[in-house]
Amino acid sequence: MADKPSELNGEELRRKLNLETGRLGWPELQRHFARGVVITLSADMDLVEVAMRFAQDDKAGIEQWLSRGCIRRASDADALLWSRTGPTFWAIVVAPWVLVQEITLQ
Length: 106
Fold this sequence. Notes:
It contains five helices and five strands; from the N terminus they run αβαβααβαββ. By secondary structure, it is α+β, with helices and mostly antiparallel strands.
Protein backbone atom coordinates (compact mmCIF):
# COMPACT_ATOMS: atom_id res chain seq x y z
CA MET A 1 0.00 0.00 0.00
CA ALA A 2 1.35 3.44 -0.96
CA ASP A 3 2.28 5.90 1.74
CA LYS A 4 -0.24 8.62 2.43
CA PRO A 5 1.08 12.18 2.12
CA SER A 6 0.57 12.71 5.86
CA GLU A 7 2.89 9.75 6.57
CA LEU A 8 5.81 11.16 4.56
CA ASN A 9 8.33 13.73 5.69
CA GLY A 10 8.82 16.82 3.55
CA GLU A 11 11.65 15.48 1.40
CA GLU A 12 9.96 12.11 0.84
CA LEU A 13 6.72 13.83 -0.13
CA ARG A 14 8.57 16.16 -2.52
CA ARG A 15 10.25 13.16 -4.21
CA LYS A 16 6.97 11.23 -4.46
CA LEU A 17 5.11 14.18 -5.96
CA ASN A 18 7.94 15.01 -8.34
CA LEU A 19 7.74 11.47 -9.73
CA GLU A 20 3.98 11.89 -10.22
CA THR A 21 4.23 14.99 -12.43
CA GLY A 22 3.65 14.59 -16.12
CA ARG A 23 2.78 16.35 -19.32
CA LEU A 24 -0.83 16.68 -20.40
CA GLY A 25 -2.38 18.22 -23.47
CA TRP A 26 -5.67 20.05 -23.47
CA PRO A 27 -7.58 17.01 -24.81
CA GLU A 28 -6.51 14.98 -21.73
CA LEU A 29 -7.29 17.86 -19.39
CA GLN A 30 -10.79 18.61 -20.73
CA ARG A 31 -12.63 16.00 -18.67
CA HIS A 32 -11.02 17.30 -15.47
CA PHE A 33 -11.95 20.85 -16.44
CA ALA A 34 -15.55 19.71 -16.98
CA ARG A 35 -15.54 18.35 -13.39
CA GLY A 36 -14.34 21.75 -12.10
CA VAL A 37 -11.16 20.42 -10.51
CA VAL A 38 -8.42 22.11 -12.55
CA ILE A 39 -6.23 24.60 -10.69
CA THR A 40 -3.86 26.71 -12.81
CA LEU A 41 -0.56 28.00 -11.50
CA SER A 42 1.22 31.14 -12.63
CA ALA A 43 4.54 30.58 -14.40
CA ASP A 44 6.60 31.63 -11.38
CA MET A 45 5.10 29.00 -9.06
CA ASP A 46 6.78 25.67 -8.28
CA LEU A 47 4.32 22.92 -9.25
CA VAL A 48 5.71 20.40 -6.75
CA GLU A 49 5.71 22.95 -3.91
CA VAL A 50 2.07 23.81 -4.59
CA ALA A 51 1.20 20.09 -4.77
CA MET A 52 2.91 19.58 -1.40
CA ARG A 53 0.78 22.30 0.17
CA PHE A 54 -2.38 20.73 -1.24
CA ALA A 55 -1.32 17.26 -0.04
CA GLN A 56 -0.59 18.65 3.43
CA ASP A 57 -3.93 20.54 3.46
CA ASP A 58 -2.17 23.88 4.08
CA LYS A 59 -5.31 26.00 3.87
CA ALA A 60 -3.62 29.22 4.96
CA GLY A 61 -0.87 28.96 2.33
CA ILE A 62 -3.32 27.99 -0.41
CA GLU A 63 -5.68 30.85 0.50
CA GLN A 64 -2.78 33.29 0.35
CA TRP A 65 -1.82 32.09 -3.15
CA LEU A 66 -5.47 32.29 -4.24
CA SER A 67 -5.85 35.84 -2.96
CA ARG A 68 -2.62 36.90 -4.72
CA GLY A 69 -3.71 35.24 -7.98
CA CYS A 70 -0.76 32.85 -8.00
CA ILE A 71 -3.15 29.92 -8.31
CA ARG A 72 -6.78 29.85 -9.37
CA ARG A 73 -9.50 27.59 -10.69
CA ALA A 74 -9.43 27.28 -14.45
CA SER A 75 -12.16 29.38 -16.04
CA ASP A 76 -14.33 29.07 -19.12
CA ALA A 77 -12.11 31.72 -20.74
CA ASP A 78 -9.09 29.46 -20.08
CA ALA A 79 -10.87 26.53 -21.70
CA LEU A 80 -11.74 28.58 -24.79
CA LEU A 81 -8.16 29.76 -25.14
CA TRP A 82 -6.74 26.28 -24.59
CA SER A 83 -9.09 24.77 -27.15
CA ARG A 84 -7.78 27.28 -29.72
CA THR A 85 -4.08 27.12 -28.82
CA GLY A 86 -3.68 23.47 -27.78
CA PRO A 87 -1.06 24.02 -25.06
CA THR A 88 0.85 21.39 -23.14
CA PHE A 89 0.89 21.48 -19.34
CA TRP A 90 2.96 20.12 -16.51
CA ALA A 91 0.36 18.50 -14.30
CA ILE A 92 -0.06 16.57 -11.10
CA VAL A 93 -3.10 15.12 -9.37
CA VAL A 94 -3.61 15.86 -5.69
CA ALA A 95 -7.10 14.41 -5.40
CA PRO A 96 -9.56 15.79 -6.07
CA TRP A 97 -7.54 18.57 -7.74
CA VAL A 98 -5.52 18.55 -10.94
CA LEU A 99 -2.82 21.20 -10.71
CA VAL A 100 -1.53 22.47 -14.05
CA GLN A 101 1.07 24.87 -15.29
CA GLU A 102 1.24 25.73 -18.96
CA ILE A 103 4.56 24.92 -20.59
CA THR A 104 5.83 27.99 -22.39
CA LEU A 105 8.80 28.21 -24.70
CA GLN A 106 11.33 30.81 -23.69
